[in-house]
Amino acid sequence: MEHTPTGAGREIQLAPNELIVSKTDPSGHITYANRVFMRIAGYPEHLLLGKPHNIIRHPDMPRGAYRLMWQTLQSGREFFAVVKNATIDGNYYWVLANVTPDYDLRGKLQGYYSVRRPPSRNAIAAIEPIYAEMRKIEAAHGKAEAPDASRDWLLAQLQEKGCSYQDFILNLNADVLRAKGVNG
């Protein structure tokens, strides 16, 4: 996949009260997308349903961030992240994503439920250089080792600060979440 330089395309911003909602099956294929998702990403429903959720993955996003997400979800915990997504026409949009495993009454994983809202501008400014460094680390490693290498670097940076990735993301977005009455 060819990498689009940061800043290429135009940023699409969610309105302050907009939420993007989607559901996937256990393998990450989209089973539901709300109208806001379709409008912001530019995809009609028939081009989203049944497709892998990474159809909207922006090349500026390090693979290590997704490795951390999947490890967190597979351990049964919810995951928060600031994510840069791509639109169908080459633009991009930032979200504060909350992804949660969805279990049936017997405890069997049914898939994942994701709610995305606008992140704080400070969160975007803080995460962009971190993701840039993670992409450099990934470029210096083989394809198989790259996600783990960048994830490990990120976790080591946060350990030095004495916080988890989730705490880091929630703290960066505390003002946005407080304004919406959301507690992380």
Automatic annotation (TrEMBL):
Organism annotation: Chromobacterium amazonense
Entry's transmembrane regions: none
Family matches, as CDD domains: PAS
Descriptive protein name: Aerotaxis receptor Aer
Keywords: Receptor
PROSITE patterns to which the protein is assigned, alphabetical: PAS
NCBIfam families with a match to the protein in the record: sensory_box (TIGR00229)
Top-level taxon of origin: Bacteria
PAS domain boundaries: 25-76
Pfam families associated with the record: PAS_3
Gene3D superfamilies: PAS domain
